[in-house]
Please model this.
Amino acid sequence: MHRRTLVTAIVVLGAGVAGALLPAAAQQPIKVGAFLSATGPAAFLGDPEQKTLEMYIEELNAKGGVLGRKLQLVSYDDGGDAEKARTFTKRLIEQDNVDIILGGTTTGTTMAVVPLVEQAGIPFISMAGAVVIVEPVKKWVFKTPHTDRMACERIFTDMKARKIAKIGMISGAGGFDKSMRTECLAVAKNFGVSIVADESYGAQDTDMTPQLTKIRNTAGVQAVVNPGFGQGPAIVTKNFRQLGMTMPLYQSHGVASKQFIELAGPAAEGVRLPAAALLVAEILPDSDKQKPVVVGYKKAYEARFKSDVSTFGGHAYDALMIAVDAIKRAGSTDKGKVRDAIEKTKGYIGTGGIVNMSDKDHMGLDVSAFRMLEVKNGSWALAK
Amino acid sequence: MFDQVLQFLFSGITVGAIYALVALGFTLIYNSSRIINFAQGEFVMIGGMATVFLLGAGLPMPLAALFAVALCTLVGLALEKLAIEPAGRASVVALIIITIGASIFLRGVAQLVWDKKLHALPPFTGDAPIHVAGATILPQSLWVLIVTVFLVLALRWFFTGTLLGKAMLAAADNRDAAQLVGINVRRVQLLSFALSAALGAAAGILVAPITLTAYDIGTMIGLKGFAAAILGGIGSGPGAIVGGLVLGVVESFGAGYVSSAYKDAIAFVVILLVLFLLPRGLLGGGSAERV
Model:
């Protein structure tokens, strides 16, 4: 290349870069990092989460962004793999330099990154269920969904009202399954419930009839609880009906999505589970404080994506809104200030419930945030 | 007590029939080329997934199933023509590794062409369980059993009663000798892949109403089917059936009476024991002598 042309090119390039950098420094976008399981066994949790984050970040940007800055979503799909979640989180922290991390669709992926965010000192709001995420409280880790312990408590409260005292439990091999099983075993006696049968299945198992047969034949069993999410509960539910079992079957909030009803088919009729008010948004009484928020989210999501809303998308919505609200209150994206602001969240009305966090409670929901739902005519209804 | 045993038996036979069908696929290809086709599980997956999406596109069930089987047969043909044949006279181990690569490839393509979600197929004749002496069995399970038996009989007739079938066995036994007597060994191998793929697809369509289907079910089903084939004696058609049923029943009783957490381990331990004591499997003999 001609030397003069080369020099000109370099000068032009240099000017261009300088020109681009100057205004950029004043309008740095707020980088929201995310790692979700949009594909894989937790896809029907992670996919609505991904869609929700994208939709609402677009909406917030259309309204002018936060603190005058646009939001930029940097998200990765970990496919439900804890190792990948770790790798992506490292990338978010070290290469993408994000200001806050939302994500961890599953307990497994969340717990894998906790050491990373604690060490890096970056606020992290998880969308996973197990109580171990926020107990013991970790400085930088928060979560939006109800815990598995609350799910157990809500289920046992319902059982007590129905005079059920002896139950069987069947759970899978995943982190959430095992965690909820442990919680249920621990709190059952507080509600006068004893767990007389305890079976398990593998993540890829396609037939649970032997385990259910054992439970059915255990003396005195009046109901069955199935902690888990994904394929397992759908097959357990189908097998339940296949064996002609008519006793009450309780699922966890891990299946709080229309996809569960689709997969389990007619077998899902009558199944009860604790879930956020979001699933029954329209039939909530008008006086319910959550109604405007959940109806608003439901309408927006369903109009945009033409598919039913799920509580998991709701968890992502809550995580994003709490994060944005905290950034506004902190007045900056300084990680320490934002963290403190998240911890001070009070009275935030979300899809999961009314959130009141504190330095001892990094989740902020209480058991009343859980409604007991029942599957009726292929759709969700409030259980009586 | 007895109804519990019966229930475990029914569960075991249902699961076992699924393993048996997959094991048959392994046996077919092994019988004609000594290759263990580790993409067999993916054939099962393609059968189920293709049917789900064709149904979703509006085709009636029988047509969707037919097209899915045809599609899978084409995939089997492509696998043989494009991946196995070019390898020429490579060692059997190399060919097996090629099939492993093919299975990974097919899984990747399935994610892109379809999706990563779980899907259900409607059962053929409804899902009201049939009550027998205090235990229940699904109509779909009966379908799996009936079709499996039918296919085994059909294959036995094919291998012992038709020239083409005998040619396939001959080509597997001694490729050079078969070529010398005028058997087109390339075509025979191609046909074995096509048949095996069709078999796998049929298995996938039969079991999807019971087990749900997704892009990645091929791995575990392929592994268990392979284990069943080894258990029954690789190369033996009845062995595949027996191996599948035994594996399913052992799993079921293991889950019922020992521990549901160790169900898979129990099954594989039993297989190891059988192989230590009866290395050719339960019904294995020289595969040239059997169908």
